[in-house]
Fold this sequence. Notes:
- The protein is an all-alpha fold.
- The chain has helices at about 5-25, 30-110, 115-165.
- The chain is rod-shaped.
Amino acid sequence: MGKKTGGFLLGALIGGTAAAIASLLYAPKSGKELREDLSKQAGDLKEKTVDYTDYAKEKSSNIADIAKEKAATLGEQAGDLVSSVKGKAKDTSEDVVSSLKSQTESLSKQFKKGSKELKEEAKDLSEDVADDTEDIIIEVKETASEAKDTLAEGKEEIKEEVKKD
């Protein structure tokens, strides 16, 4: 229920009660009839207040459930992203270390090789690192997009929950 709707309903409830009390007080009735009418009106007001409170509690609970669900989904998405990025970074670093070790070992053997071959190997290694980095960036963007979609879904669900009734 929106702020305006809730305020309107509360105002209507208070205004209706005030009008009922005023009409009872100005009506030509005996004291006993007046007390019975006032008691009935007070009971009706109490019942409406209880209904309004129950409605507000139900809506609050539904909105809290939606928020919890979306928070859990976002947490899972973030965890998946961290695991994926961590794995790719580890694989990439292991590849780089392995390649550097291999190059270091063979460097003494290949010392006589031309610098052109060494540059090509370094270029290949650099391209591999660039490709892995690009994959990580793409995955981060995809996960961010999924998180944005999850938040939008949560927002829409909350709007629908608020608009009910």
